[in-house]
Amino acid sequence: MSDLVAPALGLRQGRAEITRFARSREAVVFTVLFPVLMIVVFGSIFDWDIAPGVPFTQYFVVGMMGAGLMATGFQNLAIQIPMERDRGELKRLRGTPMPPSVYFMGKVLMVLAVSAMLTVVLLVFAVAFYGVRLPGDAQRWFTFGWVSLLGVTACTLCGIAFSSLARTARSGSAVATPVALVLQFISGVFFEFSQLPHWMQQIAALFPLKWICQGLRSVFLPAELAAGEPAGSWELGRVALVLTVWCVLGLVLCLTTFRWTTKRDG
């Protein structure tokens, strides 16, 4: 197949995946509106400042953006792919001349589109109703870009790899959702990370979400709050390193564990 044909097919597959996502009301509501609802709930309950002039909402919105990247990349794919495998869609695709890369390109493009939409919705809502302040310089926006890109890439690859653990379509949600929820609670999404027990911080540091949230905090929170991080700084170099390692690890797991058929299909 021509080198130009595969990318064109990938774009077409990406449009199909985005359309399928948009037509699924449950997926749209859970992925896009649920984080907004969480901001309303937590913003109403925790209305104190974490520092002079810095409301908790500013901190929480950052955590929800990180959780949103994980939800679209990891959780959605870890649930969606087993459903497609169980229905025999992957088996049929594997039997066509279409390169396997086209299928994965479609998933990646869908995740990127949904992640961008979710981030915009969260920022617009938080700025409009909670007075969240946006970064005022190009350097912070650049950091926002590379942290988000590395983060969503790591989560996407891990989601594709994790999808092989679900034996049936029904078990996909049961396997992926608890993992996502636990990581959110220990990674500084719902609570200030520095207030979590030390052992919990150590466990969270092994996974991407903690570093995604930490990188995003460096963008949206004042520089002086870096002193409240476990290492006393934002550690952006380590953020980049850990997320890159997870991208590589996720790719290796995808290549070695991904299954096109269910076990009953052989």
From TrEMBL:
Keywords: Antibiotic resistance, Cell membrane, Membrane, Transmembrane, Transmembrane helix, Transport. Residues 26-261 form the ABC transmembrane type-2 domain. The keyword Transport applies. The chain crosses the membrane at residues 27-46, 58-81, 102-129, 141-162, 174-191, 239-258. It is a multi-pass membrane protein. It is found in: Cell membrane; Membrane. PANTHER family: NODULATION PROTEIN J. Belongs to the ABC-2 integral membrane protein family. This is Transport permease protein. It comes from Luedemannella helvata.
